[in-house]
C-alpha cells in the first residue's frame, strides 16, 4: 500500500481502539475513507448504532454536501443510496473488519458500498462469524476492487468479540501510578474513571477480591455515565461482609460471595478489578490485562509481580491505557 493508504488504515485501527469494549456485544471496528484527497476516519461506537464504514462515509459526504442531521443507521443508508450521485466512485475505503453482508439491527454495510461503488475497499480482517461473512463477494460482484490484508492488528481488535461470541472474555483492570503504586484511594484521572464506568455499563459480571471490598467499601456501579450496574462476584474465603457497603444496595444487581470462580461460566463479558493479591492469583487466568497508568509518582509501596505480556495497544488520554495479552 502507498504511504497514504497505510496512514488511513493506521488511523482506522487507532480510532477503533477508542471504543474497545464499549461496542459489546459487537466488535470494535474502525474505518477510513479517502475522497477528493481528504481523509475521514470513524468507528463503530455502540451496538445498534451505525457501523464504522457508515460513519466514515457519512462524515465524508457531509463535508462536501448539505445533509440532514441523521443518526439512525437505516436512515443514513437510505439517504446515501438515493443521493450519492457517484460521489464515492473515485474514493478508497478502509475498514478493519469485513463489511457485513447480513441485515440485523442495522442494514448491510456491504450492500451500501455496493451501491456507492468506491474505487476500492481494503479490509484488515475477514469476519469470523460465518453468517455475517460474504461482504467480500458482494463487493466484488459490484466490480469494486477488494484487498484483504489479514493484518494481525485488526484481529487483535476483534479478539474479545470472538471470545465472548463463542464462550466468554475476561480481562483484568488495574490502575496504577507511574511507579507502580496501586493503593491509597483513586489513582486514575477523572476521565479514566468515567471510561471505567462506561465499561461497567457494558460488562455482565465484575469480579473483585474480598479484602478490597472490606477496605474500600466500593459501589462498583456506572453512575458517572448513568449506566447499568453489573452483577458482582466477591472472590473470598470469608463469607461475612458488612451489608451496608454500597455495592450491596444497587437495585437489579446480583451479588455472589464465593471462594471459587465457577460463577463466571454463566457470563460472557467479565471484568476483574482488584489489588495485588487478586492480580497474582488470577493474572494467568484472564484473556487480557488493561493497565491504567497515571502520569504521577506516589510515595507509596508499589506492587510486586513478575509478569510478561504482549502489548496490543496503548491509548494516550489523560492517563495511559495499556491493553495487553498474556505471553503464555
TrEMBL record:
Residue intervals of the CMP/dCMP-type deaminase domain: 4-137
Stored InterPro entries: CMP_dCMP_dom, Cytidine_deaminase-like, DHFR-like_dom_sf, Eubact_RibD, RibDG_C
UniProt KW keywords: Hydrolase, Multifunctional enzyme, Oxidoreductase
Listed pathway(s): Cofactor biosynthesis; riboflavin biosynthesis; 5-amino-6-(D-ribitylamino)uracil from GTP: step 2/4; Cofactor biosynthesis; riboflavin biosynthesis; 5-amino-6-(D-ribitylamino)uracil from GTP: step 3/4
Coiled-coil segments: none
NCBIfam families in the record: eubact_ribD
Family the entry assigns: In the N-terminal section; belongs to the cytidine and deoxycytidylate deaminase family. In the C-terminal section; belongs to the HTP reductase family.
UniProt-recorded name of the protein: Riboflavin biosynthesis protein RibD
Lineage, highest ranks first: Bacteria, Pseudomonadati, Campylobacterota, Epsilonproteobacteria, Nautiliales
Gene: ribD
Amino acid at each position: 500500500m502507498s504511504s497514504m493508504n497505510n496512514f488511513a488504515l493506521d488511523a482506522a485501527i487507532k480510532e477503533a481502539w477508542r471504543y474497545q469494549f464499549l461496542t459489546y456485544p459487537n466488535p470494535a471496528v474502525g474505518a477510513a475513507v479517502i475522497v477528493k484527497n481528504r481523509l475521514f476516519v470513524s468507528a463503530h461506537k455502540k451496538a445498534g448504532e451505525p457501523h464504522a464504514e457508515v460513519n466514515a462515509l457519512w462524515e465524508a459526504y457531509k463535508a462536501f454536501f448539505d445533509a440532514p442531521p441523521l443518526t439512525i443507521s437505516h436512515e443514513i443508508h437510505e439517504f446515501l443510496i438515493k443521493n450519492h450521485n457517484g460521489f464515492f466512485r473515485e474514493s478508497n475505503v478502509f475498514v478493519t473488519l469485513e463489511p457485513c453482508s447480513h441485515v440485523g439491527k442495522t442494514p448491510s454495510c456491504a450492500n451500501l458500498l455496493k451501491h456507492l461503488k468506491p474505487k476500492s475497499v481494503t479490509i484488515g480482517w475477514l469476519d469470523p462469524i460465518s453468517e455475517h461473512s460474504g461482504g467480500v463477494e458482494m463487493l466484488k460482484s459490484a466490480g469494486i476492487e477488494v484487498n484483504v490484508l489479514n493484518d494481525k492488528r485488526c484481529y487483535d481488535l476483534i479478539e474479545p468479540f470472538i471470545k465472548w461470541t463463542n464462550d466468554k472474555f475476561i480481562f483484568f483492570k488495574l490502575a496504577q501510578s507511574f511507579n507502580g503504586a496501586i493503593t491509597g484511594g483513586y489513582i486514575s484521572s477523572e476521565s479514566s474513571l468515567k471510561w471505567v464506568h462506561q465499561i461497567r455499563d457494558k460488562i455482565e459480571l465484575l469480579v473483585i477480591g474480598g479484602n478490597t471490598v472490606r477496605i474500600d467499601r466500593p459501589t462498583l456501579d456506572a453512575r458517572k455515565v448513568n449506566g447499568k450496574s453489573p452483577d458482582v462476584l466477591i472472590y473470598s474465603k470469608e463469607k461475612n461482609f458488612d451489608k451496608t457497603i454500597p455495592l450491596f444496595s444497587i437495585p437489579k444487581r446480583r451479588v455472589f460471595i464465593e471462594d471459587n470462580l465457577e460463577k463466571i461460566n454463566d457470563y460472557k463479558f467479565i471484568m476483574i478489578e482488584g489489588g495485588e493479591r487478586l492480580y497474582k492469583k488470577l493474572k494467568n487466568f484472564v484473556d487480557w490485562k488493561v493497565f491504567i497508568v497515571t502520569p504521577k509518582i506516589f510515595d507509596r509501596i508499589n506492587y510486586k509481580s513478575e509478569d510478561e505480556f504482549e502489548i496490543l495497544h496503548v491509548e494516550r488520554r489523560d492517563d495511559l491505557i495499556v491493553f495487553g495479552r498474556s505471553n503464555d
